[in-house]
Recover the amino acids of this structure.
């Protein structure tokens, strides 16, 4: 099995896939959730951060911002065939998010991308703070 | 959530009685043995959650292939009053109009066996598969809008397939009320390179043969004979549908506040059918429904070409005709009798198949006496089934039945079980040639990862919500 950072855990969902992720701040949680999603999609540890995409979005609350942030990155992956490995959240709060994702286009090597994520779901999604750590469980539709 | 009470109410039917905010009971079709597995994950709770939704009629239903989804359970069926009810993108799913086409050829197993390897290679060459695989078609947005309105007809008009195909597709391969203005720029963008592609995950194209016939008369009407070579195409609306669901789910999430709706799971986000949000989703979803019909039509055409190239026979000699095509993930308006009253309902099927009984005008004339054909694919190693709908399905399940085997292992578990094994070689030993876009897909889709579809189908047959006609066994398969 592949190595996985201690703040990320792949969870067993019968039909789909999910991750449990944690961070010291909300910003770090969002950055790590994005890393976790690309960990499911590709060998994220070997992706060079040579291209950058800016993301700006609005949503009703923190959970919706997280779903939109990940959905936007998945959209960029789907249409531009980019995979991302480094993430920076510049602003988060008041229903707004501004961030950057760094990555690369892996080309046509079919082994590089493991599988397709159709969407990021709201199912059971809750962002909680416990013992100074923010955490979230996210289920993806495969 | 507290542990839900589940009671047996008929030999193959279980009920979660109304409790708390549930407006109707939840009912699950299953054997006692299957029920022991079903209660282990969150699928029963999900069926009960659906029962909370405004305007739901009779019961929140689940077919025997019920399993843990997100929001609605997979295998869920829920019908809502047209005036009072809601519509929910989560009740259809991201892969809008994911469905199955069954085709039958004039060839027998013996005719195809010598060409099997070449046939699988040709299929793999002619039908783009895998993650984000671009299709053979490059369409402009105005052309894509035509696809979204005309469905399979669009493909036939451009030479993909035969004039006879649409007659044998649910909705004739073209649902009305599609509104391209309700589709976002992102959905067009994501869908543009994907028409005519199979996709990844559990999508596949399988060459098989009729291995058993249970109902001679129905098989005769459907033109199915022992040893006859068949094709199953399983795919949907690709990124176009995924994005359409995602965009509308976000709108519905906001609409829940506007209409002051609260539900146990945010993924159930919905809006009144008659609201602007509800109507916009309907218009966009129908575009995705048509995209999926066109997608399978293009793939069916490519399949015919692959058969001709591999066997060296003409189109007429191969004779690959569409037996029927059904949708698995869809919401549609249908008339059903509820408590002795005829009602127009918005029926959501999320991993469930329409199974209308005999004499329904929606069924092709040639099949009307036997009921609507239903195709239930299994895993890539065992078998699939052809069933027909029944009158009992009309009275009990809004004319619905199961859609497949349902997974019993997560992809992660499947990879562990398959570690160190050569799955393609194991299947080859059984006479099945498999080609996948990656080794990973084949490993994740190993036969043991799925429940035995025979048990699911038998339960539907015994419960009376559909009737077994024939069993198909695989010979070759391409996976995304």
């Amino acid at each position: 099995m592949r190595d996985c950072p201690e703040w990320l855990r792949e969870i067993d969902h019968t039909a789909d896939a999910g991750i449990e992720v944690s961070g010291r701040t909300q910003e770090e949680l969002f950055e790590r959730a994005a890393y976790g999603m690309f960990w499911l999609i590709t060998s994220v540890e070997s992706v060079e951060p040579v291209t950058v995409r800016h993301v700006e979005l609005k949503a009703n609350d923190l959970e919706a911002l997280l779903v939109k942030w990940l959905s936007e990155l998945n959209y960029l992956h789907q249409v531009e065939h980019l995979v991302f490995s480094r993430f920076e959240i510049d602003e988060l709060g008041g229903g707004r998010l501004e961030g950057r994702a760094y990555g690369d286009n892996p080309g046509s090597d079919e082994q590089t991308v493991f599988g397709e994520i159709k969407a990021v779901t709201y199912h059971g999604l809750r962002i909680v703070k416990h013992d100074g750590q923010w955490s979230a469980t996210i289920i993806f539709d495969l | 959530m507290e542990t839900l009470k589940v009671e047996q109410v008929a030999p193959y039917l279980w009920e979660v009685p109304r409790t708390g905010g549930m407006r109707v009971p939840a009912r699950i079709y299953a054997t006692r043995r299957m029920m022991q597995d079903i209660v282990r994950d969150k699928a029963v709770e999900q069926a009960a959650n659906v029962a909370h939704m405004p305007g739901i009629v009779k019961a929140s239903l689940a077919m025997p292939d019920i399993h843990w989804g997100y929001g609605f359970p997979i295998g869920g069926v829920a019908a809502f009053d047209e005036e009072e009810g809601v519509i929910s993108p989560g009740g259809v799913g991201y892969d809008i109009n994911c469905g199955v086409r069954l085709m039958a050829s004039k060839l027998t197993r013996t005719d195809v066996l010598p060409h099997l390897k070449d046939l699988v290679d040709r299929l793999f060459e002619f039908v783009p598969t895998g993650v984000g695989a671009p299709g053979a078609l490059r369409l402009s947005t105005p052309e894509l809008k035509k696809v979204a309105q005309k469905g399979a007809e669009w493909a036939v008009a451009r030479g993909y397939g035969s004039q006879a195909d649409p007659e044998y597709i649910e909705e004739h391969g073209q649902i009305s009320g599609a509104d391209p203005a309700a589709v976002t720029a992102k959905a067009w963008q994501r869908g543009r390179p994907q028409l005519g592609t199979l996709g990844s995950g559990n999508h596949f194209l399988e060459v098989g043969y009729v291995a058993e016939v249970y109902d001679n008369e129905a098989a005769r009407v459907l033109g199915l004979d022992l040893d006859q070579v068949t094709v199953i195409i399983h795919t949907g609306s690709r990124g176009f549908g995924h994005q359409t669901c995602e965009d509308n789910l976000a709108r519905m999430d906001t609409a829940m506040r506007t209409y002051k709706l609260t539900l146990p799971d945010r993924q159930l986000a919905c809006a009144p059918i008659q609201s602007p949000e509800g109507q916009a989703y309907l218009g966009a979803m129908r575009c995705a429904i048509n995209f999926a019909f066109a997608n399978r039509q293009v793939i069916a055409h490519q399949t015919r070409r692959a058969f001709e190239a591999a066997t060296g026979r003409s189109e007429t000699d191969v004779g690959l005709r569409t037996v029927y095509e059904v949708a698995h993930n869809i919401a549609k308006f249908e008339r059903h009798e509820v408590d002795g009253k005829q009602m127009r309902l918005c029926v959501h099927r999320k991993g469930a198949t329409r199974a209308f009984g005999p004499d329904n005008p929606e069924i092709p004339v040639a099949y009307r006496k036997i009921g609507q054909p239903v195709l239930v694919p299994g895993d890539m190693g065992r078998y699939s089934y052809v069933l027909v709908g029944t009158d009992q399905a009309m009275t009990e399940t809004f004319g619905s039945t199961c859609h497949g085997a349902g997974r019993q292992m997560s992809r992660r578990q499947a990879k562990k079980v398959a570690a160190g094994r050569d799955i393609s070689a194991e299947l080859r030993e059984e006479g099945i040639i498999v080609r996948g876009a990656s080794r990973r897909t084949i490993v994740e889709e190993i036969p043991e990862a799925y429940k035995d579809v025979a048990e699911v189908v038998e339960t539907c047959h015994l419960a009376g919500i559909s009737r077994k006609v024939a069993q198909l066994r695989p010979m070759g398969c391409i996976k995304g």
About this structure: Chain A has two helices and eight strands. Residues 62-80 of chain A form the longest helix (19 residues).
